[in-house]
Design goal:
The chain is of the alpha/beta class. It is 42% helix and 21% strand. It has two domains: 250 residues, 3-Layer(aba) Sandwich (Aldehyde Dehydrogenase, Chain A, domain 1), CATH 3.40.605; 185 residues, Aldehyde Dehydrogenase, Chain A, domain 2 (3-Layer(aba) Sandwich), CATH 3.40.309. The protein contains 15 helices and 22 strands. The N and C termini lie far apart (64 Å).
Length: 452
């Protein structure tokens, strides 16, 4: 049994019964049959279906937003915005899929040679709770348009969202089995990955989960894409616009109660502007309003689960014990954790070395820009990053030195359907979104026609 609990009230929302072995087998058979039907449709036919899904999401954004808020605690404004982002991504891929998946002519000594992109089959998606619609849809939309079918193993605390996403695809007329939720626990995943009807896997989650899934997929010789943790650096150089940098830093770190893999977690600041930047950060943190996430006045809701709040509290206290200085926050009531800011954070401390998945920001001194890049790269993670400076030419040169899947110059780190998203090092491999994302789960097939 799985139970969904409202993190703000701690009241039970709904209990779900896990799928039996028989139900799992039925869903796998449906996925296999659906793939034959779905992949046989033309690309324009599939994109038409996904346009309908985008329209359906827009029409139901308030209802789905309320569900997201109830199950994982983000503010209603953030939740509705998440659904809107999914709808916009449907439109993006419907508009661009034909160009992304068009046959590519290759110059060779053949009479004719080209590359064609064809779907693989059923893709298993193992998804987290922090963006319960967006994380799923950024896999599902390009994957389904490409002709694959989806099997979703969602986080157990957001199974209402899992069923709602399945509902959206069903209500828009997609054939039975094209997208299905699997209500299963972690031990079942290995058997799913070993099933010949499952052709590939995508996972967004922790490094430990990613390592386990990748090892199984490797043994089974199946394609995998991993989007794992991050300890994203936000570098502030001496010539930065400190007002905008501080405002964006706090927004990046504290949105979704800090529960984002690409949140700016480490503020690395040149010493000459450290004091001025810190004052601005503290002011921005003071403007945060915590409370009922359904209240329009609330700007930060609770963390999603008690165990997650326990984890961020542990990291906070361990970092203090190693010599960091508390500048704000640290109080906690249940899942409600006050925004925290620590100074004097160095390598070897939990808040520097580990991914901190909650409202905890840290300040790190950098001697100069070279030292700032060194500190940013002094991490096992490599997902996103940000760089603040008015010298844009120099910024582009420095961006190439940062070890991360993305660098945002003078802007908010985020995922966007128009650009590839993913990381390096222990932040995973493969890419989601843009043209790169739709081509992760296709057979890049070479066709060679010999000269006659």
């Amino acid at each position: 049994m799985f139970t969904s609990i409202n993190p703000y009230t701690q009241k039970r929302i709904k209990t779900y019964r896990a799928d039996s072995v028989g139900v799992i087998e039925r869903k796998l058979k449906q996925a296999d049959r659906a793939f034959a039907e779905w992949s046989a449709l033309s690309l324009p036919e599939r994109t038409d279906y996904l346009r309908k899904v985008g329209q359906y999401l827009t029409a139901n954004k308030q209802r789905y937003g309320e569900l997201i808020t109830a199950e994982m605690g983000k503010t209603l404004k953030e939740a509705v915005g998440e659904v809107e982002k999914c709808a916009a991504t449907c439109v993006f891929y419907a508009d661009h899929a034909e160009a992304f998946l068009a046959d590519q002519s290759i110059q060779s000594d053949a009479g004719k040679s080209f590359v064609t992109y064809q779907p693989l089959g059923a893709v298993l998606a193992i998804m987290p709770w922090n963006f319960p619609f967006w994380q799923v849809m950024r896999f599902a939309i390009p994957g389904l348009i490409a002709g694959n079918v989806g099997l979703l193993k969602h986080a157990p605390n957001v199974l209402g969202c899992s069923m709602a996403i399945e509902e959206a695809f069903r209500e828009c007329g997609l054939p039975t089995g094209v997208f299905q939720s699997l209500l299963v626990d972690v031990p079942v995943v290995e058997n799913l990955l070993k099933d010949k009807r499952v052709k590939a896997v995508t996972l967004t989650g922790s490094g430990r989960a990613g390592s386990s899934v990748a090892s199984i997929a490797g043994r089974e010789i199946k394609k995998s894409v991993l989007e794992l943790g991050g300890s994203d650096a936000l570098i502030v150089l001496a010539d930065a616009d400190l007002d905008k940098a501080a405002e964006t830093a706090v927004k990046s770190r504290m949105q979704n109660a800090g529960q984002s893999c690409i949140a700016a977690k480490r503020f690395i600041v040149e010493k000459s502007v450290k004091k001025a930047f810190t004052e601005r950060v503290l002011h921005q943190i003071s403007q945060i309003r915590q409370g009922d996430p359904t209240d329009e006045a609330t700007t930060m809701g609770p963390m999603a689960r008690l165990d997650l709040a326990d984890s961020i509290e542990r990291q906070y206290r361990q970092t203090l014990a190693k010599g960091a200085k508390r500048l704000s926050g640290g109080e906690r009531e249940g899942c409600n954790v006050q925004p925290m800011l620590l100074d004097n954070v160095k390598p070897g401390m939990a808040a520097f070395d580990e991914e901190t998945f909650g409202p905890l920001a840290v300040l790190i001194d950098a001697k100069d820009e070279i030292d700032a890049i060194r500190l940013a790269n002094h991490s096992d993670f490599g997902l996103g990053s940000a760089l603040w400076t008015k010298d844009l030419d120099r910024a582009e040169q420095l961006a190439r030195q940062i070890q991360a899947g993305s660098v945002f110059i003078n802007g908010l780190m985020r995922s966007d359907a128009r650009v590839p998203f993913g990381g390096i090092k222990t932040s995973g491999f493969g890419r989601e979104l843009s043209e790169a994302g739709i081509k992760e789960f296709v057979n890049m097939k070479t066709v060679w026609v010999e000269k006659t």
